[in-house]
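Write out this protein's structure.
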Amino acid sequence: NGNKGIEVIFTWGEPLLRSDMIEILKYYHTLWFRCFVVTNGTQLSLVKYKKIEPYIFWISVSLDGFATFHDEFRGWKSFDRIVKNLREIIPTTKKEIFLKTVFSKQNIGDLERFYDFVVLLWIRKWHIITLTDRWRWKNLDTFLDDDNLLKLSQFNQVWHSIEILYDDPLMAGN
């Protein structure tokens, strides 16, 4: 099939809020598209995951550090719900589940402890997003400075039990 290599990524907002998301994924699956879902994880119950699992290649869930920071950064209390959902889903699937974390000056100090937490969740791919001045962000005090970026770079050279992906091309080479 000519569509076999084409990837469709469902993101922005919360795709799992759509009442027709399962039908959409089924449709693209019948066309041989490889489907991916990027979610905040709050709507990703085990029941919903099992309904979409046959039609996705992988799923990415946002979790930006421990509860206090994550909930403040995202603007609402969602950490506990996301972690509960992940703990229910991960043991039941062979699909890849990426964890996506935004690091800033406010949570970079938790890097090593959060890594340990990610490993305990059985996450094998961790996408680290660095909050730098390249973002159009209102609060300039949150940006990672050169020392923080160096810390992330050194961290990546030491820890190897999960695959760490970076959004920043300067970090990806480390």
